[in-house]
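User: Please check token order:
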Amino acid sequence: MRVQPGTLGLVTLSIEIPEATLRALGPSPSEAEGTVRLAAAMKLHELGHLSSGAAADLAGITRVEFLYRLGEFGVNAFQESPEELAHELAALRSTRA
């Protein structure tokens, strides 16, 4: 891990991956890097470790694009459990009554 001087809290991480994996991830190392960054951001968001904004920053895309692309990874944009959604729906119904 290396902190880049003159940056606002940016840290460089490096990982070693097999060449075959690199080829599977994209036609170039930079495209493979983007794929890995997006996948990591999606999973970390799905697990609740990152907000959608922080995950978008990690992926290097806008929050709107990140939210749009969640479906490509089978990740729900809304992290509420069925019980939480039922509670919210009940609360909404009670305000209409």
Q: What stands out?
A: The chain has a mean pLDDT of 85.
